[in-house]
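Progress report, Aim 2. The chain analyzed during this reporting quarter is listed below.
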Amino acid sequence: MDQDIEKHISRYLKAPDTSMNSFRNIFNLFHNILSSIFIAVVIAVILRVFILSVFYIPSTSMEETLQIGDHIIVWKFLYNNKIPIFNIKLPFGFKIKRGDIIVFISPTDSNEDYVKRCIGLPGDKIEFIGNRVYINNKLLKEPYVKNKDLIFYSKKVYIVPKNHIFVMGDNRINSSDSREWGYLPMQNVIGKALFVFFPFNRIRIVK
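Predicted structure tokens for the chain:
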């Protein structure tokens, strides 16, 4: 009888603690999930602050290239070779090119962001004749301009100063741009529009 009792006690002591193992498994599962969420949040914050941003198109000024309701991805770090917040200058950076579609802080209202196309670079001579634009005495080909034949520019010549650019909307008839408020300081540029990601039926590269 005593031997039987000892066998039962021995089996009980050797039996695995399934409740403790289950607890450890659940703890490990939650730990892995929370770690993954934390890493994802950190990556998202880094992308949002330093590299990419999402912008919504609220007006018709860039039609037909960009339409009201388009959501675009903007590469913030493309033109800026300084790391935000830390103000650390890096040894590389890209220059704004004529024709780039850029997002920038409005020079008339720092709380507003605009999206326009870069037309003139520092030192460029920009001249409007009829419904055509000339850069450094050469006709600028603009297949992206909406209703080009309905546009009539007042004859005027601009010389883009250093550290500034000249921007216009593709829908020239309905665009507040450098023709109205002057040259855009390069320091106001946030980044370059890359592509439309929403609505899904209008997903495309911006150019």
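Residues 7 and 13 are 10 Å apart (CA to CA). The radius of gyration is 29 Å. These observations will guide the mutagenesis work planned for the next reporting period.
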